[in-house]
Design a protein that fits this description.
The chain is of the alpha/beta class. The protein folds into 3 domains: 163 residues, 3-Layer(aba) Sandwich (Rossmann fold); 54 residues, Adenine nucleotide alpha hydrolases-like domains (SH3 type barrels, Roll), CATH 2.30.30; 83 residues, Elongation Factor Tu (Ef-tu), domain 3. The chain is built from 7 helices and 17 strands. Strands 12-15-14-13-16-17 form a 6-stranded antiparallel β-barrel. Strand 10 and strand 11 form a beta hairpin.
Length: 374
């Protein structure tokens, strides 16, 4: 590892980061545990879940992280990033949904909190590096000297989709000790190190959205802020523009959605598009979700220098999507990158990430602006 340099371990209270802390400590590394307080779980009581388990960064998670740090015998701190988290994650999340997009708050949190402010906070306690429980790998290319991000050995746990916004400087100071391990190996290591939460279930939900009800959270958040919820109710149309019914807000819908549309038809209906300008939700059959072309904005070329012209890549359009072969067109004078898939892809969703791979190497990624038939 990096003996002689102090390492700040981002301890979320979950199995993975707890095992990282215990393992590094066993190896003789000079470590300090730090937990990020991101969201006050007592806010918005009208949408609070009675059972907060299953969400990252809950109060129970903070307790577990402190308990593990005490068991290991390492210095431990809780750092409060609530204001920055609300400004750079929660507010954009709300605004994106109101604009008909489907945001990824975990990526924003990585970009603006975990690998930005946390690195600065780590430096304030004398740590030159941070280590996290992410399933990903980092290496330095011998020829170019450039730091590169690679997919984890355990493909089922790979988290590179959420890490495309990292910079070279951030990669150079980050350690992903679990990138070469499988999840069952991590739990086994945790048991052998007597980590008290080695068998704790993984978190699933977004930390500030109880039970995954995004629309209810948005309504409650706007009310708390003293803002009138915008009028987002409107009509549901088919692809020919024929009205089929009404809806109570475009933020209740996302591309590819099947349940909760509120229209009874013998054949399944899916959300094909949301049009916030006219407050219209467009629905159609499953084949209507297929698109061959998309435009991607704000691309960060994380492992390579910015290419010019066309490159071949495998492109992932959501976390559980199998990367699909595509030609990527990069014009240095155009802020949008064009992606042409070899085969049409289902439910390309504005606001989601598009991440470009060549094998295990993560070339870069950006935000889906829109999709087209191609």
């Amino acid at each position: 590892m990096v003996q002689s340099s102090r390492i700040a371990v981002a301890m979320s209270g979950g199995v993975d980061s707890s095992v990282v802390a215990a393992w590094l400590h066993q190896r003789g590394e000079n470590i300090v545990g730090m937990t990020m307080q991101l969201w006050n779980q007592r806010r918005l009581p009208e949408v609070a879940s009675e059972n907060a388990t299953g969400r990252c960064c809950s109060l129970d998670d903070v307790y577990d992280a402190r308990y593990v740090a005490n068991q290991i015998g390492i210095p431990y701190y809780v750092v409060n990033f609530e204001d920055r988290f609300e400004e750079h994650v929660v507010k954009p999340f709300v605004q994106d949904y109101l604009e008909g997009k489907t945001p990824i708050p975990c990526t924003l949190c990585n970009n603006f909190i975990k690998f930005d402010q946390f690195l600065d906070m780590a430096a304030s306690v004398g740590a030159s590096y941070v280590a996290t429980g992410h399933y990903a790998r980092i290496r330095q290319d011998a020829a170019s000297g450039r730091w590169q991000l690679l997919r984890a050995v355990d493909e089922s746990k790979d988290q590179t989709y959420f890490l495309f916004g990292l910079t070279q400087e951030q990669l150079s100071r980050t350690l992903f000790p679990l990138g070469e391990m499988r999840k069952d190996e991590v739990r086994g290591l945790g048991r052998s190190l007597e980590v008290p939460i080695a068998d704790k279930p993984d978190s699933q939900e977004i930390c500030f959205v109880p039970n995954g009800d995004y629309a209810a959270f948005i309504d409650a958040y706007l009310k708390e802020q003293g803002r009138e919820a915008p009028l987002t109710d409107g009509e549901i149309h088919d692809e020919e523009g024929k009205p089929l019914g009404r809806h109570r807000g475009v933020h209740h819908f996302t591309v590819g959605q099947r349940k909760g549309i509120g229209i009874a038809r013998p054949e399944p209906l899916y959300v094909i598009a949301t049009e916030p300008g006219s407050q219209t939700v467009v629905v159609g059959d499953g084949d209507s979700l297929l698109r061959r072309r998309m435009l991607v904005r704000e691309v960060n070329w994380i492992s390579i220098g910015e290419p010019v012209g066309k490159i071949r890549a495998e492109v992932r359009i959501r976390n559980r999507h199998t990367p699909a072969n595509a030609t990527v067109w990069v014009d240095k004078y155009n802020q949008l990158v064009e992606v042409h898939f070899d085969e049409p892809q289902r439910a390309i969703t504005p606001g989601q990430g598009a991440v470009f791979y060549q094998g295990d190497l993560v070339l870069g990624g950006g935000w889906i602006q829109r999709s087209e038939l191609g």
